[in-house]
Amino acid sequence: MNRVQLLGRVGQDPIMRQVDGKNPVTIFSLATNEMWRTGETEVAQTGTLGDISQKTTWHRISVFRPGLRDVTYQYVKKGSRLYVEGKLDYGEYTDKNNVRRQATTIIAGEEQYTVPLCLFKWKRGGEPLK
Prior knowledge:
Layout: E1 4-10, E2 15-17, E3 25-37, H1 42-46, E4 52-63, H2 68-75, E5 81-94, E6 100-108, E7 117-120
Parallel strand pairs: 4-6
Antiparallel strand pairs: 1-3, 1-5, 2-3, 3-4, 5-6, 5-7
């Protein structure tokens, strides 16, 4: 099974690309945050809980499915809180300096019977709440 579930904030407005006559794709980045407490062993000794540490991870999201791709391009905006469900995809490409690179992408919306994207905190009129 290849399944990814992410909840985070969109890093930039989605862009739509079409390469070499292939189907268009909507692409955007999503930031997820991981938080933990350091020094928890100090609780018993000093009574303090320790410091809170945080790590932000950026994910590249691609949406190929017609309909979902268009809705994502139209309604998802930078800063939107978004739930994404999809699969991991590993690929290679050659950059503008002719160097081979590897890329990890989340392909959203491949499953036909799930909710692949879900926006949070929207009000009437289609404007996202900050």
